[in-house]
C-alpha cells in the first residue's frame, strides 16, 4: 500500500516569529511547510497545497478566498481581535478553522489543521456560540424537513467525523455521503458544515 503524502501547508502571518513557531510545530507533527508570506505577499503557491493558514486582517479574507477558489486547498484563519461580525464573515466565506492568537497553542494548531485536512471544521466553543446566534437570526428549520439519512449524517458531522468515517459508520459510499452533505447544505441554506451543525443543534434536530 502506498504511503499517504504528508499534508502541505503555507503559513501567512505578519510576524516572523509567529510564522517560524507555527512552522516548527507543524513540521514536528508531520506537515510539510511549503512557504511563508506576510499579508499574502509573496503570493502563496497554491498548486497542490492542502492548507493555507492566513492572518485574517482587513482584505486578507477576500484575497485568501480568491486564491483558493476552484481548488481543494483548505483555509485556516488566524485572528487577533475576535468579534461576532468577523467570525460570521470568516465562517460564511467557507474557512475551515478559526484560530484566535491569544489562545493559540501548538496542540490547538496541530489538532485544528488535522481536522481541516480530514474535511472537518474546527471552531472554538465561544465562536460556535456566536455562529449559532447568526444562524438563528437568518435561518429557520423544521425538524420534519430532514429525512433519517440526513439526520444521521448531521449527527456524525457534529461528532467531528470526516467523510470517510461517516461512510464507514453508515455503510455508505463516500460519494453518497458527499451528496447527502451537499443536499443538507442546500436544504438548510448553509455554506459550510459548521453552519449546518450549528443550525441543527440550535433547533434540536440532532
TrEMBL record:
<keyword id="KW-0238">DNA-binding</keyword>
<dbReference type="InterPro" id="IPR016032">
    <property type="entry name" value="Sig_transdc_resp-reg_C-effctor"/>
</dbReference>
<feature type="domain" description="HTH luxR-type">
    <location>
        <begin position="139"/>
        <end position="204"/>
    </location>
</feature>
<keyword id="KW-0804">Transcription</keyword>
<dbReference type="InterPro" id="IPR000792">
    <property type="entry name" value="Tscrpt_reg_LuxR_C"/>
</dbReference>
<keyword id="KW-0805">Transcription regulation</keyword>
<dbReference type="InterPro" id="IPR039420">
    <property type="entry name" value="WalR-like"/>
</dbReference>
<protein>
    <submittedName>
        <fullName>Helix-turn-helix transcriptional regulator</fullName>
    </submittedName>
</protein>
<dbReference type="Pfam" id="PF00196">
    <property type="entry name" value="GerE"/>
</dbReference>
